[in-house]
Automatic annotation (TrEMBL):
UniProt xrefs under InterPro entries: LytR/CpsA/Psr_CW_biosynth, LytR_CpsA_psr
Superkingdom assignment: Bacteria
Compositional bias annotation for Low complexity: 375-387
Name of the featured protein: Transcriptional regulator
Biased composition regions of type Polar residues, renumbered to the chain: 388-397
A Pfam family hit: LytR_cpsA_psr
Gene3D superfamilies listed in its UniProt record: LCP protein (3.40.630.190)
Family: Belongs to the LytR/CpsA/Psr (LCP) family.
Region listing for Disordered, in residue ranges: 375-397
Domain Cell envelope-related transcriptional attenuator: 84-274
Amino acid sequence: MVAKKKRKDPLWAKLLLWLGALLLVASGGGIIGGKLLLDHYSDEITHPGGLGAAATEGKNIDGPINLLLVGVDERVNNTEMGVRADSIIIAHVPASHDGVYLTSIPRDTKVRIPAHPATKYPGGTDKINAAFQGGFQNGGGREGGLELLAETVGNLAGGLKFNGAAIVNFDGFKGLVKALGGVHMCVDERVISIHTGWNTKTGKEGVPFNFVNDLPTTLKPNMRAQTYEVGCYDMEPWEALDYVRQRDKLANNDGDYGRQRHQQQFIKAMMKKATTAGVILNPIKMTEILNSLGDAVSFYNNKVDLTDWIFTLKGIKPDQMITLKVNNGDYHSETINGKSYETLDETAKELLTAIVRDQVGPFVAAHPEMVNNDADTAATAPGATPTKSPSVKASNR
């Protein structure tokens, strides 16, 4: 196990699992036990509350569906830093229920966060990831944090309401990827890991970089960093998880935008693996996956039974997932009083309006540049040859 440097670890996987896991169960549920089995797992992963004023009214998910998917950075033994949402995705399912649009909101987006009297949070202008902390503090917990974040995201989108939301546990997520047996990933830019490396003399695993002010600087003596070259590979669980955590050493210098893109691609890769016959027709593997859900998923179902969610979304396939990039994947930075924020351009704001109006399909048709290229296109990049591992062989671990 690699000794982790105490730095701003987004635990991105907390949110990425949920959509893949939910649709995974939807695809496999009818084969391995139907409604009774789903009711059993519903008791383990569903939670009340968490959406507050941002929740839709009633128990009807027959029309368009909006889900808030959240990854939080929980600082153990660090009350000063608190808990912030490091990954925020709006998952929009049109009323036709024939696809999913995933839109990542940059965590540094400048927003007006409403006051939250229950936790004595006064509100104000801040980065959007601070909303979770505002609702989490003073006993608000995850439900309070999710509630304030949902209201903040809803206001940013001009009145968006959510049918449900999810927070995913990182450690549980690792168990689920292991149960899947890894995934097939296509690397679209050279990525150097700041978390995983090997000593060239002893062969021992360790953190490869020195850190200054929480940022990686130079390689440590005799250390070689894990590197992911452009191409398509069958990644082992540790490789896939390490790859999509990276944001500091990306070849295109696209930072959080690159990581968001890789996270979205990872969702697709998980769904593709989960819906293969080798998984859904294997009762042992399916049981391992389903048993990991309780440790991995906290789903706030807004009083709608999990079985209704699953059977409503069961027809959606991996190739019907469209991943979208705000600001065309470019930085739109603004510094106010020494603090750096991201701002949304007009096209990004129009996308949020289209989500509210359930007009994302026509919007995307008019703005194809906002669609992230399918990860599979990496296979056609120069020198990209599908192989078993992107660089370091499993024997090195």
